[in-house]
Specification:
Blueprint: H1 2-12, E1 18-23, E2 28-32, E3 43-47, E4 51-54, E5 64-68, E6 72-78, E7 83-89, E8 94-102, E9 105-117, E10 122-128, E11 139-141, E12 157-162, E13 164-166, E14 176-181, E15 186-189, H2 190-198, E16 203-205, H3 209-218, E17 228-233, E18 241-242, H4 243-260, E19 264-268, E20 270-271, H5 282-290, E21 295-300, E22 310-313, E23 318-325, E24 331-335, E25 339-346, E26 352-355, E27 362-363, E28 368-376, E29 381-388, E30 392-403, E31 408-411, E32 418-419, E33 444-451, H6 459-463, E34 486-497, E35 501-506, H7 508-525, H8 531-540, H9 564-567, H10 589-595
Parallel strand pairs: 12-17, 12-19, 14-17, 19-21, 21-33, 33-34
Antiparallel strand pairs: 1-2, 1-3, 4-18, 4-20, 5-10, 5-11, 6-9, 7-9, 7-10, 8-9, 13-16, 14-15, 22-31, 23-30, 23-32, 24-29, 24-31, 25-26, 25-30, 26-27, 28-29, 34-35
Length: about 625
Amino acid sequence: MVMWFILLLVVCLSFGREVKVLLNDGSVKVVEEKSLYLLKSSTVYVERPKRLFLKDPVLRGSSIGIHLSGQMSLSMPVQSGQVMSFFDLNANPSFSGSCAQSSNTLNCNQGELLISSSSPNGRLILISQTHRLGLLPSSYYLGTNASLSGRTGRAVLVAVVDTGIDLCHPEFEDRTIFFYDATTGQELDQSAIRQARQRGECDKDFGGHGTAVAGVLAGKNGIAPGASIVAVKVADSDGSITDATVMRALEYLSQKKTQLGRPMVVNISLGSNYGPGDGDSLLERKIEQLSGPGLVVVAAAGNEGDKRVRAVVPPQSSAEVQVRLTGGIPIEVWYGGNSTYRVELCNDFSLCKSSLPNSPPFGSLTCVLDMEHRSYPLNGKRFVNIDHNCSGEYTLRLSLVSGSPSRIDLFGGLDANEFLSYTVSDSMGGYLYTVGQPASGRKVLAVGAFTLRALSVSSRAFNDLGRLAYFSSRGPTVDDRTKPDLSAGGYVVYTAQEGGGYSYEAGTSFSAPAVAGLVALLLEASPNLTVEGVKNLLCSQALIDPAVGNVPNNFFGCGKANLAALEGGTEGSGGSGGGCSTGSSQYNFTIFILTTLILVRKLVSRSYVYRNTH
């Protein structure tokens, strides 16, 4: 035991300034490497920090989208005083009945709205500011109905664990009450933030991702415009993010919640596609420790649904997995703890590097830097981390040495690594098992994305309006739990941009804060809700349409996130559905476009950060 710890200590000292440790009481901590020896008697497992990647942007408003094809006539009940706006893309609609059209606004009396179109292929989006809309033929739900809930998130803390925030952006007004840089330990309270704003020292965001996320969650045009914002920066000066930094951020937020005595929802729009994939990563265990009444964590499911970043080998004695590698991005192999597999990486010339537990890698393939076998105490499995600078196509050979065959899960980390065999295709043109961590956690509300806007520049967005976003990561988890838990609009949305402006964004990074905003509205009414209670409430009111299908499923979870029916608001006779309030009886068409979309943002970091092309 002593020799094991000394060896582990020597290995860990090469990892950097801090490590993650699992203690024998089951708790997880982040400690400085130099103080690791003080925990020798109580340490079960030590792990170096892992890189996390941003899950680029997604949603806000509320509406239905209608697919029009050929000569169509539709009708829907409307109420006196109901105001709707519409967005027309090749639909060329005409309106009659109980609503009068003024530009792109419909002002209605009690009765029916009649919609006619002869477009061979068009899309029409309807938004009601004051009443919920029901489904029409060939239509899909788009929005959350948050504007009809009668709540703003007042007295709730919304924490954005991300790249930072633009302290001076008008979306946040004076509601950012704390800023904490988890990479340096710097904290600004509300007074210090006000002083920084007066001096024009606004830029506390690396790349703008955090500002855009916060805009969806709690901007004045966001889901919870009355909430207090706690912004936590976890990106270092190079834009790199590690799970250890996120864990320290969560510890800070737990303490802040206790200090202020207010409920809190934490949004994490970042993650990774490394193992174990069953909710037992140290980061996910940390979330389990801190989660409780009045503290709920929401995470982006990921943007790898159309990527071959995961492979699953059923139990067998040997297998050859084809993989396309990019140098510098590790891959991981996980299998049952009662088995031992030899792992070999070979090129087309049969030059290989091979590895077994408790022995150094051997062979003539020179691009492999390390093949580290380890046992993982939280789930009893073994895993192999393959660190390499190989680029191109290779074969990963897996051979059973002892024990019985077990399932083998392979993780590519980033889509720069791609498995060419043993991937698991789904019925929607993507791949299963692609939800990353921490979204796979048991105490995390994981959020997928669907297509919110029909873009004329994108045939995919046009055709898939209201349907699953092609990039949205799919479940299940390795231990076969359904993920994501639910979904929200994500392709595309309009939100705050670093520097005081606005931009369009797309990705599960922004469907997650839309749901986090709904959680804030729930916590306003019931401040002691747990993540399980929140999930039950949201799933009981989730919207189901033809795109969603039978629920729960590994695409939409329990359905499309919705709150108005749960929280109250004006009832329309059209059933459950859209609704987007601007606080005015007149809805400007430009604002409509701005407040119902989030566009594709391409964040570029110098180190391991997603460059999302969605």
